[in-house]
Amino acid sequence: MKKWLGKYSQQIFLFTAMVIVCILLTIRSEYFLTWKNIRNILEAVSYRLILAIGMTFVIASGVMDLSAGAIVSLCGVTMALALHGGIPVPIAVAFGILLGIALGAVNGLLIHYTGINFFILTLAVSGMLRGISLMITDGKPITKFGQNFIYLGIGRIGEIQLSVLAAALFTLISIPLMFHMKWGGYVLSLGGNREALIKSGIRAGFYRVTVHALLGAAAAAVAVIITARLNSAEPNAGMNMELDAITAVVMGGTSIKGGKASIAGTVMAVLILGVIRNGLTLMSVSSDYQQWITGFLLLVSVLISEIKVYKLKALMK
Amino acid sequence: MKKRVLSVLLAVSCMAMVLAGCGSKEDAPEAETAGKEETSKEEAGGEEETQNKTADILSGVEEQMNQALGELPETGKGEKIGILISSTSNEFWGTMKTRYEEAAEELGIEVEVFEASAEDDTKGQLDALNTMIPMGFDAIILSPIDGTNLIPGIVAANEEGIPVINLGPGVDMDALADANGHLDGKITVNFEEQGSTVANDMISRMPDGGEVAILAGLEGAGQSVGRTNGATKVFEETEGVELVAAQACDWDTEKAYEATKDILTAHPELKGIFACNDNMALAAVRALQEMEIEGVMVYGVDYTSDAKAAIEEGTLMGSMTYSSSVYTKAAEEMAMLIVQGKTFEGPVYLPLTLVNQDNISDFEGWK
Fold first, then answer.
1. A-proximal residues of B, 17-46, CB under 8 Å
2. Which of A54, A156, A187, B163 is the most exposed place for a label (fewest CB within 10 A)?
3. What domain range includes position B305?
């Protein structure tokens, strides 16, 4: 029991915090606990979750990708241009996703083969990609794509929006992928124990490229959702989205050094941030609080895990 | 172990207190539902002039502008003027850049337009200004991202003796004075007037009063604060109209879209939304369409091409605009006048126009 509490302290913290926030919001706003509002929350967090799960894999592999938001933007405007060029929706979407995968893979290749620090590298890539988005759109949003495409952003099966289904599905697949399959195991050891991985003859490059390609695919999926939802592709879309994703991943207990990941933690972190955002708007409270609370949650969550590491070290002495 | 559990509990309860505290703003005084006749009367006269063509409106605006400037400069002698805008990643500033260049050609002067990399890149904009100072401009026209970000650069320009003209979003004058800096001229849109004009048009269409909301831009940005204040004042002074939410959405369409859904969930009877720019207004329109809610009037600011289309379609009620060609030309004329020795005391205001579903046919070819 003690061991379990220790291992999952961050997730327990987030869960407790979420329960308390939900209880408070239920008392404060009669609308909070209505199905319509819960649906709003789920739809608002869906694409954030997709990106955060992708980012969980990348952070588990010991690096970060600061270009994810720019990939969202470039995939969005590329798809928009394709659609305006008369290309059918499925082909345009497939092209957008492939572009996301390719851009992600390029990040992986560059990180692995150039040895440039991932932070600098993805920052540079981010600037270049966002620049391309701005150049090809002239800074203007591209709008109006027809009902077939919009359906991808707002269509529902029964009561559940497609984006929510996609996020749920991606989350469910990611758990066995991370923890029960060879691929996930190597991704984790890429972060936790890279030397040993290479010594044992595993092609680290393959895992580096594929893990970034996965994030690229996730970013492209986000681009489909938000472009379709707003019926508008903007070069500024996805601004700071990668930082929000990194925040949620780290808050959820995935180690920034890699080697240790928590999908459940990422899900909870994305959810609690979504609930707080929604709650503040419902209560007509300034969104300034949102930033404070996000920072505070991140700090406490990480603090809990650091205390844990510190205690373990003390025990080993 | 115990300590850790304790620290978790402590942290959670600390956060709970913050959350509990921030709800208390909600109990704003309810406005009474009596007597809203005054506000709806004055709007009746506005519909007679539907014959006005764009050209007439434009030349009228230019005339007003020229009166505000006082006199016109001598023809350009190739003055070199540096212009610093926010970022062309916003369509509005992209258009402004083009208009600046067109006006310069017309006036016979030379301009060069600089910008920040993004609309929230305050430091990058200051860097751009610092780069401009040694480039030998006769005057600099600048539009800061927020009230204070360019102050060190303005002071540096003052020291070099380069006249500085502030167009649009204002420089914080107190902070500038503290830094021993000054502006040589200011030409601006009255942002409060943008907000109040929209609010007045909105309430004129709400004879029975009702709930309204504001989607603000970036917290602290001059346009956003001015527009929000202008609209808030009108809403608060109008009996029967209640401002139920004013959320900062940082000019971000995705945030505006989500905020609209959340606001409508808490206030299903909402009658009107004023978004501080068109991109956010159109995101609100999208959210309303998706929630299948009709009868909420949405207004924006900027009159972008998408906003124009949406007003024509009837999904957007209106958008504030002004003539960017008159605006940029006036700014350059002001710069020329200052270079030629004239001084300006107070700010010069640009005439404003609301395009709505009733008058949009008058605005073909507006620029």
1. 18-20, 22-23, 25-26
2. A156
3. 192-321
